[in-house]
C-alpha cells in the first residue's frame, strides 16, 4: 500500500475486482475503500468531487450489501478512480503523449520519478515497497551515480526506514513526531509537485539511463508490459474505461486474463446422431427467420435444415427470447449457417435455445470464454487478449522466471504458455484440449508456478530483510539451556515432542539472527510449557519476554498457568490487559521500563504507546492467526530485533503454512501429553435434533459433570435462525433447575467474564453457555462435555478448537454437534468429518478443501494470499513446494536479490499494485 489515497483506493478496488469481482466479499474491504476515499475527499479532488461523493455514498453500509451490489459499487469506484488519475496526469503531464500517464505511474512504482518518492516519508507504505525502493538505490549499479544522487538516495532510505517504523509503532511518540514531519513534508512536496515533477522526473530517468544499461532495459520492458490497453487497435477511451472497471488496465493485465472455459467447436455434428444435451455445432441452411414482440415478449425463431448422410433432411429450430444485435441482418433464407449450442428435443422437435451464430466460413475452431466484462463482448475480448499477447511477443521481453528454472521444471516459456491459453491451435490434440478445459495444462501449471515462485520469493526476501538485523540479545552459548532447571519448574515431564521443539528453539537462540518460528500444536498439546522454556532461556540471559494472547480470558489463563512455574524459577511475571486498573498499570509500566518485570503477559494492550520494555528479546504470540500481521510487527518493534515465536492451535495445512507464514520456520508438537483420551464426537442432525442433543448433554450434567454449551449468537436475531446464549441458558435451566448455569460472551466486560470463568473453574457453575469466546485456549480440565448448537455455522477448524475445550483430562469426554440440517446435507456431511477424525490436521485439510483458505481462519487478515492461477490443493501443493525450494535457493545465495535485478524488478511490479501477499511489515 502507498500513502497516496488514490493509489490505495485503486489497489483496494482492483483486489476486489479480480476474477468476476470475487474479491468484493473480502473481509474489511468496505473499510479499505472508505478510508482512502475519505482522505481523497478531505484533500479535495476538483471537478470529480461529485462523482466521488456519489461513490462514497455507495460505500455506506457496504458490509450489508450483497455481492451484486458490492460489485456495482466497486465497478463505479474503478471508473471514478480512472477519471481521477486522468485528471491528475492532465495537470502533471500536460502536453505529454497519450501513454504518459502509464509511464508516470510505472515510474512511481519503480520509485524513481514521482514527487511522492521524493517526499519519501509516507506513513503507511508497506515494507515490501519501501524495502524494494531502498534496495534499488542500493543496487550495485548505484556506484555510477553522482554524489548528489547518492545523497538523495540515502535520504530516501532514511525516509523509507522511518516510514516502516512509523507504521508499526503507530502509537509511539516518535511516530507522532515523524507523522507530523511527514504531513508537513507532504504538503510542501505536493505544493511543489506540479511545478517540479516533470523536470525532476525526466532528469532522473536520464541519469538512470546512463547509470546502468541492464536496469534501463528492464525498465523499458516493464513499461511495455504496463502500457495502457489503449495502445491496442480499436481500444478508445470508452473500451479502456470498461476494461478498467474490471481491473484490466495494462497490456499485461489482458495477457494474464485467463479464459474461464474452452469449447471444442472444431467439428460439426449430424442431427441424426447427436446426443441430447451435448454442446455441438450444427451446420445447415437457413429456411426461415421470424422475430418480433408477441404479447409483450420478444422472441425470434430460426429454422434451419441439415442434410444427413443418407440424404434425408432434418430440421432444427433455434430460439431467442431476448433481442440479439444484428441477428436479423446475419440471416438470409437459403444461406449456410453454423449454430453452436445445446440441442434438446421439445415436443418432438429438435431445438436450440440462445445458440451462438458462427461465421460459416471461419467459425469452426476452439471457442474461448473469458470472464464477463460489462459492455465488451466475448469476441472482442478474445481479440484484445490476443492483441495484448502479440504486443508482449513483439516486445521480446525476457522471461520473468529464471530460465534455468523453466528448463528444470519442464515448463513452457511465458509467451508460449500465454499463447497456448489465449490462442490454442486448431489442431490441438484432444487430450491437450481436455487439459486446458480442466485448467491443468502445462500452460496453467506454468502460470501457477510463476505465481507461487514470486510469492515465495517475496516472503523469503522479507524474511532475509528481517534477519539481516542482528539481535540485541547476544547468541546464547551452546548448551547454556538448562533442562534440569526447566524440569524443576514444571509440574510434569515434557513430552518427547515438547523437548524436540524446545531444542529447535534453543538452536534458534544460539544464532545472532532473530528467530522466526511458528509453533503448531493441536489444542492441549502443551504449547504454553514450550513458550515458558523459551522465555526462561532468554530471561536467564538477562533479557525480557512478552507473551501476547488474543483475549483477556486467555491472557489471564496464561498468567494462571505460568505463575507457579515462574515462582519456582524466580521469574517476575505480570499481566497487562485493557482492564488493568490505571494505578496498577502506571506502576507496572514503570517496573517494565526499569527491567523489573521479566515476563509480561497480555492482550493487544501490550501494543499501545507507553508500554516500553527495558530489554525485550523474545516475543511470543499465542493463537497467532487471530492477530493481523501488523500487530505481530508492532509487538516485535518494541524490542531490537527480538526473537519471535508464534503459536497456533489451528492446525495449518502445510500449503497454507508455507504461504501465510512463509517467512517463518515451522515446528510441530505432534504428541499429546499422556493420559489424554480426546473426545467422542456425535452429530445430531435434523429439524428436531436440538432437543435430543440437549438431552444428551443434560444426562452428563446430571451425572455431576461440568459442561460447555456453545451458541452462535449472543441474543436472539430475527434475521438468523440460530440459538442464542440467553435463550439456550433459559431452556437448560428448565431441564436441570437445580444446576447453576451461567453465560459468557464477548459483549460482557472483562472482569465479568473472568468472574464467570472463575466460578466455572471452581465448580460453582456447572454449565457454561457461551459464544465462541471460549474457542481458544480456555483450559478447565474437568469439563468433559460440550454441546455446540447450530454447529454448521462454524468452520471445521473452529469446531475442532471448540471441541478441544474437553478431553483435557482422564475420563471419557463428549462433544455433541447439533445442526438443524439433515445429516445427508452439505452441512451434515461436513460435521461428519469431525465425527470421523480427532486429528486437527486432517480436519484442517478437509476444511481447506471444502471451504477454501480464506475461511479456514475466518479472516483475510491472516495474510493468506488470494491466488489467481495456483491452488492449494492437489497438484498445487507439489508446485508450491517446488517453487519454494527454487526461491529459497536463490535467496540463500543472494538474500537481497542484489545480483538478480530482473527478479527484483519483477517482484516490485507484482507487488506494486496487487496485494499478492500481506507479509510481515518488519
Ligand atoms: P495448548 O497447546 O492448547 O496451549 P496448554 O499449554 O494449555 O495446551 O496445555 C494443556 C494442558 O496440558 C495444561 O493443563 C498443561 O498444564 C498440560 N500439559 C502440558 N504439557 C504436559 C505434559 N508434558 N504432561 C502433562 N501435562 C501437560
Ligand atoms: Mg494455548
From TrEMBL:
Residues 90-212 are annotated as: Disordered. PROSITE patterns: HELICASE_ATP_BIND_1, HELICASE_CTER. Residues 142-166, 182-202 have a biased composition (Basic residues). One of its GO terms (biological process) is DNA repair. Coiled coil: none annotated. InterPro entries: DEAD/DEAH_box_helicase_dom, Helicase_ATP-bd, Helicase_C-like, NA-bd_OB-fold, P-loop_NTPase, RecG/Mfd, RecG_dom3_C, RecG_wedge. Residues 693-849 form the Helicase C-terminal domain. Gene3D superfamilies: Nucleic acid-binding proteins (2.40.50.140), P-loop containing nucleotide triphosphate hydrolases (3.40.50.300). Signal peptide: none annotated. It comes from the Bacteria. Residues 119-129, 167-181 have a biased composition (Low complexity). Keywords: ATP-binding, DNA damage, DNA repair, DNA-binding, Helicase, Hydrolase, Nucleotide-binding. Residues 90-108 have a biased composition (Basic and acidic residues). One of its GO terms (molecular function) is DNA helicase activity. Residues 508-669 form the Helicase ATP-binding domain. This is Probable DNA 3'-5' helicase RecG. The gene is recG.
